[in-house]
Amino acid sequence: MSDYLTEIMSQVKKKNPSEPEYHQAVQEVVESLVLVLDKHPEYRSAKVIERLIEPERVIIFRVPWVDDQGEVHVNRGFRIEMNSAIGPYKGGLRFHPSVNLGILKFLAFEQVFKNSLTTLPIGGGKGGSDFDPKGKSDNEVMRFCQSFMNELFRHIGPNTDIPAGDIGVGGREVGYLFGQYKKLRNEFTGVFTGKGLNWGGSLIRPEATGYGAVYFAAEMLTTRNETLEDKVCLVSGSGNVAQYTIEKLLDLGGKPVTVSDSTGYVYDEQGIDREKLEYIKHLKNVRRGRVKEYTDPYPHAVYTEIDQQADYNPLWNHKADCAFPSATENEINEKDAQNLLKNGVYVISEGANMPTTPDGVNIFLQENILYGPGKAANAGGVAVSGLEMAQNSQRLPWTREEVDKRLQLIMKSIHQTCIEVAERFGTPGNYVNGANIGGFLKVADAMLDQGVV
Ligand code: NDP
Description:
- By secondary structure, the protein is an alpha/beta fold.
- It contains 16 helices and 13 strands.
- The strands form 3 sheets. The chain has a 5-stranded mixed sheet, sandwiched between helices. A 5-stranded parallel sheet has the order 7-6-11-12-13, with helices on both faces.
């Protein structure tokens, strides 16, 4: 890396101590940008990178709420408004006990490039809380969401900042958050995406991230004249992204064999078919149970508890062709990456954000496999969020076919951008450089046009 970029990284670490995920996300992008800066000194002189790594605004607030027993709890709420050069801030809210400033900054930073890749006019943001919805009653979740919105409402709006879901924030939470926003503002606007269908939501939005990750894998495979037909696929997670990844894999003839949650994973050698997928959806979305219970109706499947001491995740150590990490960040480390290759995996499409550690990414790049990083592969979710915003502005819902067609076109276009940009900057087939540089150029040019703001 050039001295200039090394200096940028040392500033990032100094200014943002104890935020390793943020350092990791910036480092990965900056490594790709080495290829750009030689050809484009104007970005350097306008200090575009220095401005990109400093959030436009960070909001941190107290979220007090009362549980069903009358006890008071206090959580911390965040919204990172990272970059609005090409459109209003847009990105999900995450409710998980691991949430902290550094994790949300990494997610907001990635979101800027991802949103740019979608071709839609949306800036980047992210938010959330260290609140854990697991084990809480619906009323507790509602009271928490209302308290969270009592502060957030003054910072967001349909032309300012439009949140959506992420880990721990699904249809239920978006409903409570939107309801409170509407009450406080006294207006019904498209301020959230991922809304319910009968109150402004878009068809295919729940499916979009998972479907998009599978469409992206299919696009990568076309470069080798192959399809997903009969491909054995490892999927992690069992939430929104994992469920719809499995659904689309089944549509395209793939054979998903795993699901997981934060306590363990299930390996079903016979394949997860539609009936089993319906069981998983009901288990996770309605009963809010654990994947371990999959073996109750399907005892031939093998459940393995997570071993926190182990230096690898056995989910990634099964014979397969493709992998769809769809749970959380850094869930594939160097050893997992080696195990994946050893077991024959040569297509990786990241539904989750930054699920592979830098050492793991390097292994995939060295081996020249079809590796689609999250910024590109999971952009289908935010893309359909953008389409939900368009429908809200028009006050016209589109059909399922219309939204799905546009989603497919967008994933195709993202794939094409990655391929073309990677080639143009001398690293053909490198989707990491393609996504980072492709996302960067549009935002950087907009920043140049808009002056030093
Ligand atoms: P959900 O909350 O619906 O599901 C998350 C799944 O991942 C659950 O199975 C959860 O297990 C598991 N998980 C969460 N944290 C951990 C952890 N620390 N270790 C192991 N497993 C974990 O979230 P989504 O499906 O929406 O999100 C999954 C990933 O996809 C995230 O990285 C998110 O940022 C990314 N993403 C999501 C988009 C969306 O539209 N929803 C868009 C783009 C990216 P458990 O049930 O035990 O919590």
